[in-house]
Write a structure and sequence with these properties.
This protein has three domains: 29-96 and 121-205 and 302-373, FAD/NAD(P)-binding domain (3-Layer(bba) Sandwich), CATH 3.50.50; 209-301, D-Amino Acid Oxidase, subunit A, domain 2 (D-Amino Acid Oxidase, Chain A, domain 2, 2-Layer Sandwich), CATH 3.30.9.10; 449-587, Glutaredoxin (3-Layer(aba) Sandwich), CATH 3.40.30.10. Residues 23-27 and 569-579 have low confidence and may be disordered. The chain starts with 15 loop residues before the first helix and ends with a helix. The strands form four sheets. Strands 1, 2, 8, 9, 10, 11, 17 and 18 form an eight-stranded mixed sheet that branches. The protein has an eight-stranded mixed sheet with strand order 6-5-13-14-15-12-16-19, sandwiched between helices. By secondary structure, it is of the alpha+beta class. Helix 2 packs parallel to helix 5, helix 3 (76-85) packs across helix 4 and helix 13 packs parallel to helix 15. It is built from 16 helices and 26 strands.
């Protein structure tokens, strides 16, 4: 039996706080984390935390999934994150895979581009998938986790922070339900409640930036069509002159078409079928047969909050930052927020890191948001020039791009989402040796085909969601004393050997190590690795340090830095748990 995710609803249920006797208006149980908003970002955050052993309460003021296609383009990096969360295969299988894009000026193709021209990656550059499918699959994943409770039709109507700056600091939410209101207390609150964020408003906070005076029409059209699974973007097409049009294929024979309308367009009038259908027919041809599934008119802004952290309340996704839709940076950057935040909350709550580690969530993702806003603003300015000079420049670039490669670098039909390299993060240890390539401290790890004791697999799947020592070479080639010292650290060991080496489940030098064969030599190539090269990888699969030769003291220092404990050796980590890991780091 197939599920109609577009119209799926969930039952409201009263919760324990409502059933328990009230205690002078205060909440009884203080939960570790409450997440507000069951969109892609809130669900990803809650799932990630729950998988790492943190009990989570997720509240949402609605009881349905997203309507219409909305966010449809999910990048390779986001798919890698969903793989780690255990739902990447299903999402990718349902989505429409694509790597190729084409740019047109009027009725001529200017050029084509390939976003993933090389082999040896598990996931494509992008998939297209309606947001309601993504949310539905994430909800089903969340429902399998015993320590994750989803509360539908539980609306946050108030928020207070208590005992800030003390070990007893927590947040109390006032939550409204069909049965009345109740207090919900949590050590930390993640606000992933969208661009209109009620939590942000309740706290008297705002986002600042630039609103673009233009309007766009989204039409989801169901039809049988022979168009390939590619991204097609037209500047000034004859069927929609002086504007732009974007075409994407989605699952279920649904096609997403974005029409630029101009600022003077009436957003209510333009959604009427008698206005939409002629526009679609002008693109598809007079004999095309199609049905309208969903229509929306939108404007957009590029903006963000000054800070993503306010005490024990942390903002993620659209509640923290917003960008134009060109480049698919909204949902993709939000899921990266979720991954960045989840492991840090887990470490703080488990006592493996101090509360100050959460400041790095804010600084790292504010940096990423600024990068996304900068690129998104440039895309929008190129697509919608606001002066005759800007229009002249754009058209000249497009004309030159037909024949000259240098001009294609200037064409900006929406530079597509790539993960931010977290340069300058306080968690990074700068390189002390000469390295080449993209895997610098702060970069998101790239994949490569490998083989282990259970057969062929992928490198990222072997890293998991813990701090990982990624070493190139067989364990036996490393100094035995160094390995003994490294084994005392809270690290997952992964050794990558040459393509012809035998993969094994472990090794006498480190029995619980994962040993992988580099099937095509791509892992060593992409990580600029030589025999003996060592990487320290964060739980969110970002590089935080690398060395040409293993040194246990250097690795321990980098691990302290990456968990926010630099300068705290001998003090241990804050909190009641995690003392073994903290002691090992302090001793090292």
């Amino acid at each position: 039996m197939s599920i109609d995710y577009q119209h799926l609803t969930f039952d409201y249920q009263p919760c324990a706080e409502q059933r328990a006797p009230r205690e002078t208006g205060a909440a009884g149980t203080i939960h570790p984390v409450a997440v507000v908003g069951a969109g892609p970002v809130g669900l990803a955050t809650a799932i990630d935390l729950a998988r790492q052993g943190v009990p989570v309460v997720l509240v949402d003021d609605d009881c349905t999934l997203s309507s219409g296609s909305r966010a449809i383009c999910f990048a390779k990096r986001t798919l890698d994150i969903f793989d780690r969360l255990g739902c990447g295969e299903r999402i990718t299988d349902k989505g429409v895979r694509w790597n190729l894009g084409k740019v047109f000026l009027r009725d001529e193709q200017v050029y084509a581009f390939d976003l993933l021209p090389e082999e040896g990656h598990r996931r494509p550059a992008f998939i297209n998938l309606q947001q309601y499918y993504l949310e539905g699959y994430l909800v089903e994943c969340a429902q399998q986790l015993p320590n994750l409770e989803i509360r539908w039709k539980h609306k946050v109507a108030g928020i207070e922070q208590h005992a800030q700056g003390t070990p007893d600091a927590h947040v109390v939410l006032t939550v409204e339900t069909p049965d009345g209101s109740y207090p919900l207390a949590a050590r930390y609150v993640v606000a992933a409640d969208g661009s209109r964020s009620p939590v942000r408003k309740l706290m008297g906070l705002d986002s600042k930036g630039r609103t673009f005076k233009d309007r766009f029409l989204i039409a989801d059209v169901k039809m049988e069509a022979g168009f390939p699974s590619e991204r097609w973007f037209w500047f000034d097409p004859p069927f929609h002159p002086n504007q732009s049009v974007l075409l994407h294929r989605q699952p279920d024979n649904v096609w997403r078409i974005d029409f630029q309308l101009g600022w003077d367009a009436d957003p209510v009038l333009e959604k009427a079928p008698e206005r939409v259908i002629p526009r679609v027919r002008a693109l598809l041809g007079p004999d095309a047969k199609f049905e309208l599934e969903w229509v929306s008119v939108y404007t957009f802004s590029c903006l963000r909050m000054d800070s993503f952290r306010h005490g024990h309340v942390l903002f993620a996704g659209d509640s923290a930052h917003g960008v134009s839709p060109f480049g698919a940076r909204g949902a993709n950057s939000g899921v990266q927020d979720a991954e960045n935040l989840a492991w840090k909350l887990a470490y703080v709550l488990d006592g493996r890191a101090p509360d100050s580690l959460l400041d790095s969530y804010a600084s790292e993702r504010e940096y990423a948001a600024d990068e996304n806003i900068r690129n998104s603003t440039r895309s929008t300015d190129f697509i919608t020039p606001k002066s005759p000079v800007s229009r002249l420049f754009r058209d000249a670039v497009l004309t030159l791009a037909k024949r000259h490669a240098f001009a294609r670098q200037l064409v900006n039909s929406g530079r597509l989402s790539v993960p931010a390299v977290l340069h300058g993060s306080p968690l990074n240890t700068p390189d002390g040796d000469a390295f080449a390539g993209a895997m610098v401290p702060g970069a998101a790890c790239v994949d490569a085909p490998v083989a282990g004791a259970r057969g062929e697999s992928w490198l990222l799947g072997s890293l998991g969601d813990a701090f990982t020592l990624l070493a190139f070479g067989a364990p036996e080639r490393f100094d035995a004393g160094t390995l003994r010292a490294l084994r005392s650290l809270p690290l997952k060991p992964v050794f990558v050997t040459g393509a012809g080496a035998d993969a094994q489940a472990g090794t006498p030098a480190w029995p619980d190590a994962t040993v992988l064969a580099d099937l095509q030599g791509l892992a060593a190539q992409r990580y600029d690795a030589q025999p003996g090269t060592v990487y320290l990888i964060r739980p969110d699969q970002h590089v935080c340090a690398r060395w040409r030769h293993a040194d246990a003291a250097a690795v321990a220092a980098a691990l302290r830095r990456a968990t926010g404990q630099a300068g705290q050796a001998g003090q241990g980590a804050a909190g009641p748990a995690g003392s073994g890991a903290a002691a090992a780091l302090a001793a090292a």
